[in-house]
Structures are given as structure tokens and as C-alpha cells.
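Entry for the shared binder. Reason: the reviewer on the internal report wants the predicted structure included alongside the sequence.
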Amino acid sequence: MEEDGSGGSLPLGAQQQTSNDTEEEEHFHQVCKAYQQYATFHQTKQQGITRRICQLINESRQEQEEISNNTSPTNNEDIQQQPTIESILPPTLHPQSSTNAQYIKQYNESTIRNQYYLDCILKYSNVDTSQDVLRQRKQASTAIDWTTEDQISKIDSVLKSVVRDWSLDGKEERSVVYDRILGALERYMPLNAKGDKKMSCCNDDKCISNIMTDESSNISVPRIAVPGSGLGRLAWEIYSRGYSVQGSDFSLHMLLASDFMLNGCGIPSPPEGSVEEEGRQSFKQFGICPWIGETKNVMSFEERLRTVVVPDVDPTSLLVTEEEDGRELEFTMLAGEFLHLYSHFLPENQSKANDEQHPKAQQKFHAIACSFFLDTAPSLPHYLLTIYHMLEAGGLLINFGPLMYHWSGHGSLLPGDTDVSQPNGGGSSAYQRRNKHLDDRYLTSIDYTWEEVRYMILQCGFEIVEEETYIPAKYTSDNKSMMKVMYDCVFMVARKKSTASAE
């Protein structure tokens, strides 16, 4: 499945209609269902909080009544003057107060604001919106197939990622990462004006940045891969500087939103010859409330419901395919797991590569830009070897991020798991029984130190040309929250050695 950032391909929903993969179609349906039911889930969760408060008040009243029945009239009067649970609750939480009614009204409006944005994504993808589903349900009177809390939490993550990538509020956070990656591309693989001498990153005449200084190479545009591209801003920024870009991501939750942000926010220009309206916007913007799902470490109700405007720029303003000097630019987005998308570059899979199915499968990349990506690997050695073979000789691996290891934390071997080595066909070990509910990737993932990762990068055949450690960075952080997570990240630029220099 391919999403073309140049606007030339079908939206993801339309692509699903032509898919023959039943499992993939079901997954897409589950993702869309979470988009459709977002507001209902959050409003119901808020109703649950109100119900708990009512229960708390009722229990408090019963306690007060019991005390009153067992106390003398004199003491009872003193007790009644004491503060109670009901009396100390703020008006915003008291179910019978006008303040609470306004509180609930504002909260519901925020969920509807988010739902409208999500519905725009669904509509662009040729999928039924929440309102379409509601009308169908009323007509058919069918039982509701509800999504899960886990799915809704992923939609919350999408909204936070939209803010990180496509708002002024997220500029400071993303700039720490993206500016370093963009700076490395411009230093080691510059695209100067035609006729200007390009700088190089090394003295190796087989390094790609030196090859491209030749006059004969002026029409060749460096191809940059951005795996784990999420909402697509980094890929878009690289493309805006004149590089051909191929982003990719495994999460359909993210890809639906990135497809819309990159291709669906433009407003068509008025017909030629018509009078253009003064102050007319050139692209769509939305107000979303990304923090309404947060109930911990919140300073105030207003901060939880605050609105952020997205996008901060017109993502469709760069829909060009050719530079003035004749170089062709490409911007594509792929959906799928990294190894599934790119393992055909590995030497052992070269004979299996289908050129008809992947017309550009054999075109290697000149750089791979990784932002908070390497630690998402279920098997980091496999990722590193694949990255190495994806690159041309002299190509760059540019990495920024921590080592959170997304597949870590489950499936550890415990003292009672002594029969873990028992073969699968010979029965079920205690380890297997205890972890049978887990994804296999939790059971194979290994947490490596940066020194170990660095060693593997060198052993693959890279040389490190730039490295910086302990760079403070946040990820989809709420600046108004009472708790903020700060990572000490690593930034590294590694160059793939040519065959001669590797020897």
C-alpha cells in the first residue's frame, strides 16, 4: 500500500477497497472504528467520573445520616457544622451545580471539535464518518460494535503527534530533532544552486556526496528514506529542501492522519479570471484539543481543554515534481513494517525482488533519516543490516533519539521458567504458558546500550562522522503538564564505507 505525497495516488481508504488482504482490511476497519467512536468514548469516560462523584456524595450522605442517628442533639448540631465530602467538593465537580454543567458542556464541545477533525480525515480517506455511522445505526437499529480503550489511546497519540509535527506549539520540541537532521543533510549532502561547488563529507571518491559534485550528476536528486515518519513533517521538511523522499510508518492510525495532513488540507485556487477574495486562506486549519484525555498532573480544567491550531503551514504548497534545472523530485509514503518494506535490499533476498511489483525496489537511498525510530525495532541488528544494504556506497545514516525499546518490558525469564528451552513441539513450558498472550516481538526483543548499538553500526560497515550525546529532548510533551518526560538523546551521522575502504 502506497500513499503518494505528490497527491497523485488514491487516499488510503480507497486503496483498501482494492485490497485482497482480509487481515489488512480488518485492521483498517478497526482503526477507522476508533476514529469514528472517539468523541463517544471520551464523553462516556467523563460520565463515569460524574457517576463516581455521585457515588462519593451519596456514601458521604449515608455516613452523615448514620452519625446523626447515633448522636445526641447537642453533639449533632456541632457535627452538622463540620465540613463534609460533599461540601468541600469544588463547584466544577458537583453534579448539581451550574458550574459543573458548564464544565461538562465545554468538555463535550472539545470532544466534538476533535471528532470533527477526525471525521475530516475519514472523509478524505473515503471512509464513513462518525455522523455517517450514526445515521446508519438509527436506520438499521443494529447492535453497536464498540472499539477498545487501547484503540482510543492510539487516537489520542495521533492528536498529540499532529500537534508536535504541524503546530506552532510543537515547533520548539520538533526543532531540537529535525534541525539537527536537516543540518546534517545540508552539510554532508548539500544541494547548492547549479554551478556552485558542493562540499563533501570525506576524501573518498566513492562517497555519494562526492559523486554528486560531478556535472553529469546534476539531474540526479538524492533519495532520502524516513522510516517511522509518523505524521510526516520531517519527511516534508526534507522534501521542501529539494530532496526526493520516501517516508514510511507501520501505524495505520498515524498514516490516515499523515495522508490527510500532507494531501488533504489544501484549498483549490479560484478559477482563472475570478476575483480572489481578500484574506482568503490557502489551506484548511483546525482547532483540536489534544490533552482532553489527560487526567493526571493537570494544573487546571482550562489547560486540559485548550485548543491548538493545525497545521501551521500549508503542507500542499510543495506539491511539485520537477525543479527548474530538470531534476525530478518524488515524495512518497509507504505503509508497512520496516523489514517487510525494505528487506528485499538484503543480499539473500535480491533474487526474490519483483521488479514489476516494486518498480523502484532496486534503487538504493543516499541517506536514511531516523527520528525516534531505531528503538522501535523488535530486532535492532536486523534493522541495522537492512539500513546498511538500503544505502548507496557513501550513503548516510542520520539518527536522533533515545533507547526506549518499544518491545521491551514484557516476557522476561523468571526463576520458575526452568523449562524454557523445551521445543515448541514437545509441550508447553511455564514460560510459554505465562506469555502466550504476548506478541512474539516482546519475547525476542533485546535492550542494547548505546555503546553496543554503536559497535554494531561500525561492524555493519559504517564509519561515524559525527556524534553528540546527552541532548535533552521531549516527545509529544504537554508543556502545561505538571509532569514532563525529558530524554537524553544521541545524535549520530554515520557514512557507509565503499567496498574498497571497508576492506
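Summary line for the report: Confidence is low (pLDDT under 50) at residues 1-8, 193-197, 213-219.
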